[in-house]
Specification:
4 helices
C-alpha cells in the first residue's frame, strides 16, 4: 500500500498528517476532495447508464430478430 493510501485510509494517520494545517488549507483540501468525489460519482453513473443502454439495445435487437424485423425495416417506419 502506498503512503498516500495509508494516509487516506487511516483516520489516525490522516489526523496526524493534517494536524498542522490551517483551517483554510483544510477547507481547500475538503473542496478538492469533494470535486474528486463528485467526478467519480458522475463517471460511475455514466458507466452504469452506458451499460444499461447497451443491454436495452441488445434486448431490443434480440426481440426484433425473434419477430423477424430487420433494423432497416424499423428505421423505415420511424419518424424522421
Amino acid at each position: 500500500m502506498s503512503e498516500l493510501e495509508t494516509l487516506l485510509q487511516s483516520p489516525r494517520h490522516c489526523r496526524h498528517a493534517l494536524s498542522q494545517a490551517s483551517l483554510e488549507q483544510l477547507q481547500d483540501a475538503q473542496a478538492n476532495l469533494q470535486e474528486l468525489i463528485d467526478a467519480k460519482r458522475e463517471a460511475r453513473a455514466q458507466e452504469q447508464l452506458d451499460r444499461k443502454g447497451k443491454r436495452v439495445l441488445s434486448d431490443m435487437r434480440s426481440l426484433m430478430a425473434k419477430a423477424g424485423i430487420s433494423m432497416d425495416e424499423l428505421q423505415a417506419v420511424l419518424p424522421k
